[in-house]
Design goal:
16% strand, 13 helices, alpha/beta, globular, 327 residues
């Protein structure tokens, strides 16, 4: 977890760890560097930093394999896009391996694949068809507060808008989106939540401090409360989309990285969330502004909300944990 690696990888692993712990198992985190240390330890888990280069994972195998034996590790969850075939093979010879995937990049030498993506059924057409795949949003590893959310109450008009753009907001989308909302003279209350690694929150607060309906917040620990507060969420296409589904808040999505594209297009294909484009190429803020008008009807937002909550029930981490503990 750093300026290049999203916090979502760590958060979903923490959700699985919480579910395993609740069922009587024990978890330890191992990472290439110390970046996720504060977050992981704040949740009550030990973390071992290998002090290696996260971009070259095979270099850590000689350090990691003895640690797996030392800690009597039975199952290893691998969650990184930097993984290689050689790394997977080395780990699978030693422990039962699970790989959290949404790209199907090559033939994975692992025991199980976890792919909770909305497009999972469309992904594994050629490679990895022989693997045991925990596929679909039913395996989304959300935090326990997202289990059994109440049916979303839909307001007649859009009064509260929540804006998010991932951990670092690489393309400055929060500012662009809020600027467009201000320029359009929308009367809704708009709260923008900056990611854990975003460094421009104070500058944004200074910029909008004269606007009573605009609020800029740093990373929050009560995301579910904010999703429940919102009548509409505008967000980048990461794992937050599945939290939004559990709560049932209508959402407009955008992307700024290739690994988000499957999610945002998958939700749009199923008529659950509208997609406003890629921040690298499109005028996303303008597209969002137009889509807000399409979401104005309470009936439209109610239909989207029902579809979201039918897709994700928040019990994915528990389902994964039970499978891991029974293997």
């Amino acid at each position: 977890m750093n300026s290049e690696i999203a916090t979502g990888h760590v958060m979903r692993c923490l959700s699985i760890a919480d579910a395993i712990t609740a069922l009587g198992g024990r978890c330890i985190f191992i990472s290439a560097d110390e970046n996720p240390g504060e977050l992981v330890r704040s949740k009550g888990y030990d973390l071992i930093s290998l002090n290696t280069d996260w971009k070259h994972m095979e270099e850590e195998t000689e350090i990691l394999l003895p640690l797996l034996k030392e800690y009597n590790v039975a199952s290893l969850i691998i969650d990184t896009y930097q993984v290689t075939a050689g790394y997977m093979s080395a780990m699978t010879k030693s422990v039962h391996t699970y790989y959290v995937d949404d790209l199907d990049l090559f033939d994975y030498d692992v025991n199980d694949i976890i792919c909770y993506a909305v497009y999972a059924d469309d992904l594994y057409k050629e490679r990895n068809r022989d693997k045991n795949i925990l596929a679909g949003p039913g395996y989304t590893p959300l935090r326990k507060e997202f289990i059994g959310c109440a049916e979303k109450v839909i307001s007649e008009s859009i009064q509260n808008v929540l804006v998010m753009s991932g951990g670092t907001d690489t393309y400055g989308m929060i500012e662009k989106i809020v600027d467009k909302i201000v320029a359009s003279q929308r009367k809704c209350k708009t709260v923008a939540i900056c990611g854990r690694l975003y460094e421009g929150a104070d500058l944004l607060r200074d910029k909008y401090h004269n606007y009573e309906n605009i609020e800029i917040k740093n990373s929050v620990n009560n995301m579910k409360d904010w999703l429940e507060w919102a009548d509409l969420v505008i967000t980048a296409g990461g794992s937050t989309l599945y939290e939004i589904c559990a709560v049932g808040t209508p959402a407009i999505t955008f992307s700024f990285a290739d690994n988000q594209y499957g999610n945002v297009k998958g939700f749009e294909k199923r008529n659950i969330m509208r997609y406003a484009g890629d921040a690298r190429y499109d005028d996303v803020a303008e597209n969002i502004n137009k889509l807000i008008d399409e979401y104005a009807s309470g009936a439209v937002r109610k239909d989207l909300s029902v579809k979201e909550q039918e897709l994700v029930d928040g019990k994915g981490a528990e389902r994964i944990a039970k499978i891991i503990l029974n293997d």
